[in-house]
Amino acid sequence: MLADLAMRAGRRVVAFDLFGDLDLRQSADRVVTRGRLTALVDAAVAEAPGAVVYGASFENHPALVERLGERHALLGNSPNTLRAVRDPGQVAAALGDLYPRTTVALPSSGRWLRKPLRGGGGIGVREWRGGALPAGTVLQKRIDGVACSAAAVGDGSDAIVLGLTEQLVGQRAFGVRGHRWCGNLVPPRVPVPLEEAQAICSRVATALGLRGLFGVDFVWDGERAWTVEVNPRPTASLEAIEAAYGVAVFDAHLRACAGELPRRAPRSVRAAGKAVLFATENVTIGDSVRWLERGVRDVPSPGEHIAAGRPICTVVTRAATPQDALAGLEQQAAGLRAELAARVEVAAGG
Question: Fewest Cβ atoms nearer than 10 Å: which of 17, 216, 220, 249?
């Protein structure tokens, strides 16, 4: 996604990626694949000095980002900012009563979620039912409501919201349960005041020095937005944000890193959505080249083996309403899953 956004903004891209999917290989100028984040960084620092934008997972590895910054110009948040964002105490100080109580002290009552300090996408988040906390986890008071997110850009002292999304969480149609993220709808199906999201993003950007694209995950309870996580890098919702709001998000990122914020938040002109399809059993990919013609993203190579619980690909859509967008995503997911099931049956039949 990041490579596509950059190329649509007229940039040449060398992509360092764990997977090297078909669509990335067809579009980027060059793709370097490695099996681990540390190996990706090793490959990146071997390149001639340039500019680098990092994506998901790197917010949990400030030491790796520091290595990148020693060789290249970082277009994004510094390692110190990443450490601050992953400190619940600093986030709580920035947001005050807009941040649910987050603690390592074991409470005597109430409903709580156990969350990893270094996480993302809802991985490792679960209901806390008592007992000791594993190292590297915290408890956060559970808030009932609609899971949403704001995509914003910061200049280190303030921020502008680029768009709001409803998060798809625990959707069985896409192969996940519980608190696992699997996609976004733009705009949310429930009315969420943009002003509240703007106030939150401005507060965290000012307090933590956020620069460039970032996201804030929040729960809308019908009256107020409760921030549950800050993601200090480009978020997965951006291709849906760009489609629905008509904003050039990568250009906004570059400008914000240089200290220039958009004058105002855009307004959505259509609905859009994206969803990640996860494997519910071990699968072997067949002729995935034809998926490219249907607009499927993050397309694995033919013959690739994908274990249960791992992502297979991403589907995207535009529609008249977010409800229609969700229906379209579910239809695409069902079609792809039927293709994979048919391949399994043929293989089993000999």
Answer: 17
pLDDT digits (tens, 9 = 90+) for 191-204: 999 999 999 999 99
Which of these, 61, 236, 262, lies nearest to 154 by C-alpha position? 262
10 token code pair: 């007229």
What is the C-alpha separation between 329 and 276, in angstroms, rounded?
9
Look up tokens 């940039």; give the residue.
11
Q: How many whole angstroms separate alpha carbon 89 and alpha carbon 61?
A: 19
Q: Which residues, 6 or more positions from 133, have their beta carbon under 8 angstroms from its beta carbon?
A: 104, 106, 114, 139
Cβ neighbours around 224 below 10 Å, total? 14
CA 273 to chain centre: 13
Cα distances (angstroms) measured from residue 288 to each of 32, 333, 342? 21, 14, 14
Distance CA 194, CA 209 (A): 21
Determine the Cα–Cα distance for residues 64 and 13; give it in Å rounded to an integer. 20
Strand order in the sheet with 159-169: 225-231, 211-220, 146-155, 159-169, 181-186, 271-278, 311-319
pLDDT at 348: 52
pLDDT of 234? 97
Q: In whole angstroms, what is the distance from residue 13 CA to residue 16 CA?
A: 10
DSSP 8-state symbol, 171: -
On whether the CB atoms of residues 173 and 335 are closer than 8 A, the answer is no
Q: What is the pLDDT of residues 36-79, one digit of tens each?
A: 999 999 999 999 999 999 999 999 999 999 999 999 999 999 99
Q: Where are the domains positioned within the chain? A: 1-75, 98-141, 271-350
